[in-house]
Amino acid sequence: MQDAIFLVAEDYETFRYVYANAAAFKILSLQQTDIGKNIEDVLSPARAQIHFEYYRKVHASQTSIEMIENIETESGEILGEVVLNPILTEDGYCHYILATVKDITEQRNKDNMLQETLQSLDAERQKGISIFENNIHAVFEFDQQKKIVNVNAKAIEITGFSKEELLVQSLFSLTVENQLVATLSNFEQALAGIPIEFEMTLYTKTHEVVVFQVNTVPIVIEETLTGVYAIAKNVTTQKKTEWLLQESEQRYKSLVANHPYGIFVFDEKGHLKNANPGTENITGYSVEELLETSFIAMIIPDELEKISYHFHETITNNKSERYEFACHHKNGQLIYLQATNIPLVLHGQLVGIHSVVTDITEITQAQQSLTKTKEELEIFWKNSAVPIFYIDAQGDILKANPAFEETFEFTEEEMIAGKGTIIPKGMKSDQHNILKRILKGDTVKSHDTLRVTKSGKLLNIISSYSPVRNERGEIVGATIIYNNVSELKKIEKELQKSQEKYRLITENTLDIITLMDLSGKIEYVSPASEKVLGFPEHVYIGNSFTQNIHSEDVLHLSDRITALLNGGKPIPLDVRYLHRDGHYIWMEVSFNPVFSNGEMIQLFTLARDVTERKKLQSEIAKMAFYDHLSGIPNRRNFDSKLEKAFLQVDPSSKKIALLMLDGRKFKQINDQFGHDAGDAVIKEMARRLQACVRPCDTAARLGGDEMAVILPDIDSVKTAIDTAKRILTSYEAPFLFNGYKITMGAGIGISLYPDHATSEKQLIKCADLALYEAKKSDRDAYQVYE
Question: What is the pLDDT of residues 109-162, one digit of tens each?
């Protein structure tokens, strides 16, 4: 809009208008006849008083004044920047004041939008900082040169370095040497913008090794990769456990493969399935030959009944059986063997039998085997990572390996001399009961118990006890293996604690939490489902996630989940859920995948009741398109309806009529009866106007007492004229307000498309010109554009 400029002159105790440009006429709703009039004769008393005070101030101080003012114009209210400048004569007297009004509505709106954007950006920045600082895992930020530029508190806690110390470090100085090449290669990919997952091994400040499971997140600013976040989960304890398990498995396989005895592996029915190389040494048959031929063929017939008996005992009672038998060597020689059938029991079920066989044909050969076994066991004893010790039949320790000393802090000599105990107070009976079972010949496996170190620290122990017999078969003691599982127990307790915490959250929140499998079948739903929707949990379990979803929303919901399964990003969706009472409730549903070992296994959803938000959005939308005073469509709605009418009309057969209406004596009513009366007149004008048009027509308030009517798809100008007559007739009846009869009136300008205009803007202009002609009359009148 052009800046409005007008000039006022000091006229005794008041001011009068002496000049105004076209924009000033439009803004102040001035007529040409108003030039030369005093401001109180042109403006309302309230507005005239405000202007009068500003003019007096400028006149008196002979200085300029700037102010911001809300101004009602023909097009609606604008925000104006008003500057009043005194014009001084040569002798320094202020006779004239020049007023300039600039429309800054759009600029102010842009400023407000900018401020909102800045606030939103700051909020997002704070969220990012919170995620970084409060992450349960260590977070490192690296620049393009792989230099650490930021770390969170968890990283400081795990590494032992201060933040300042870490910021001067690099990957080269922190990474364990044999992992450096792989780590740098992984970071090269990450700094190329590829999110990856890998293991990274670093040194702490105390030069301890920490293993991290790292996920990288590229840092992209304005489409430029500036660095990478490394979210590092401390898996050191987990890796150590894996290493121990791998070592135990390798030791077992090595023990079987390299055992000097022959080991035959039978299934639970006694069928031979495998054998170790030791069997070849004893029998002369290779493992392949043993598996291809019948094992029974080697046995002397007289021994079959005895062997069958011991196998039956092992299978029936799940207990070890030791016996001797004779068989033929491959070369035909008769040999005598000692066999021990060891049941393999898994989860209480017999799954196979290991038959450990020794050749007792020659005493020398048996002695050599014994020596070899002793040496291997000694190596195992000294190098085992778990405590192993030997007790006599009274439970006193006779021998302990180095791992025992390291774990319990007692030396072997101290334990043999009875100077220490690893049994906590109150648990003597536990050890006595175990000893009783050992003396009966029982092998005790995976016994969960507690033991205490020399310094008083309690350890969670998984123990195994194997009876030791002398040459007469008498039990003279036991070999005991301890596995310290204190860390695992601690992790287990933390997991239980975490599960309880999340259980409390899910049971007490009003958000509905759902877990479903990848086929869409619900596996869990939180108790909030009954509080919010009225249905108990069992109604949903085992059923499809689309159950009780409004039919119009099912396809959108299915598409959203399909996209998520195909690797898309989780995006919230508003969906209508059926309430038990029969009505639907709007819920905002958020979807998140659940991964295990990098593979999606479930979907997690969070549904929140947004019914009130939906109602508020609807009300806000209505406020945007309807006039708050009169309740009829506003200028924005009017522009939209007029544009729609132009798009839909066929100008070869139909017309569009536009009626522009302006009330009469509205200023006089405001001055005489007050603004409340003026508002009441506007409402009544709108009500009567609305009653005079068809349902397909649009009656709108454009501002002040200016209104308009759009008549789409009419056949001739007669329809528009008839409508104008009805409107003017409806305004003839006086309007009662607070006991006063108020007479209303209006002028109406009519233009038609395509008769008078080819565009919406031109059609409005033609109707305004016709309205101008209609208002020249002293009575209510309408005028068709000519």
Answer: 887 787 877 777 666 667 666 677 778 898 988 888 888 888 888 888 888 998
Structure tokens at 566: 């195909």
> Hey, how many other C-beta atoms are within 10 angstroms of the C-beta on 81?
17
| Residue 361, helix vs strand vs coil | coil
End-to-end CA distance of the chain: 28
Q: Which two tokens stand for residue 634?
A: 């506003």
Measured CA to CA, the distance from residue 216 to residue 223 in angstroms comes to 18
State which amino acid sits at residue 758: T
Asked if 509-614 and 626-784 have one fold, the answer is: no
Cα(511)–Cα(1) distance, integer angstroms: 51
A 10 A CB-CB count for 521 gives 13
What type of residue is 186? Answer: N
Kindly list the domain boundaries of the chain, sorted by start residue. 4-103, 135-234, 243-373, 384-489, 509-614, 626-784
Residue 624, judged by CB atoms within 10 A of its CB (0-12, 13-18, 19+), counts as: exposed
In SS3 terms, 323-358 reads as EEEEEECCCCCEEEEEEEEEEEEECCEEEEEEEEEE
> Positive or negative, the Cα torsion across 158, 159, 161, 163?
negative
Q: Which CATH superfamily is domain 135-234 in?
A: PAS domain (3.30.450.20)
Does the domain at residues 384-489 carry the CATH identifier 3.40.50.300? Answer: no
Residue 461 predicted with pLDDT over 90: no
Pairwise CA distance, residues 752 & 745, whole Å: 23
User: Tell me, what's the pLDDT at 275?
Assistant: 87
Amino acid type, 110: K
pLDDT given for residue 237 in this prediction: 86
Please write the tens of the pLDDT for every residue from 628-664. Answer: 888 899 999 999 999 999 999 998 889 999 999 998 8
pTM across the whole model: 0.32
Q: What is the predicted pLDDT for the residue at 332?
A: 84
Q: What token pair was written down for 338? A: 């000692």
- Which parts of 227-297 fold into alpha helices (H)? 236-258, 277-283, 287-292
Model confidence band, residue 417 (pLDDT cutoffs 50, 70, 90): confident
CA distances from 200 to 180, 240, 319 (A): 9, 14, 47
Nearest to 510 by CA among 525, 533, 538, 532: 532
**Are 545 and 520 a contacting pair, CB within 8 Å?**
yes
In order of 519, 662, 674, 727, 769, the CA distances from 667 in angstroms are: 70, 12, 10, 21, 21
496: tokens are 């239980």
Mean pLDDT of 294-318: 83
Phi, psi at 292, each rounded to 5°: -85, -30
Note the pLDDT tens digit of each residue in 228-257: 988 989 888 888 878 777 776 777 677 777
Pick the CATH number of 4-103 from 2.40.50.100, 3.30.450.20, 2.50.20.20, 3.40.50.300: 3.30.450.20
Main-chain dihedrals φ then ψ at residue 630, nearest 5 degrees: -90, -25
Among residues 139, 138, 143, 144, which one has the least CA distance to residue 158? 138
* Chain centre to alpha carbon of residue 164: 32
CATH number, span 509-614: 3.30.450.20
Calpha distance 88→603 (Å, rounded): 79
Confidence of residue 330 (pLDDT cuts 50, 70, 90): confident
pLDDT at residue 364 is higher than 50: no
DSSP state of 569: P
> Which DSSP letter does residue 442 get?
P
CA distance 599 to 593: 10
For 243-373, CATH gives 3.30.450.20
Grouping H, G, I as helix, E, B as strand and the rest as coil, residue 371 is: helix
Angle at 221 between CA 220 and CA 225, to 5 degrees: 40
Which CATH superfamily includes the segment(s) 626-784?
A: Reverse transcriptase/Diguanylate cyclase domain (3.30.70.270)
Integer Cα distance of 521 and 541 in angstroms:
8
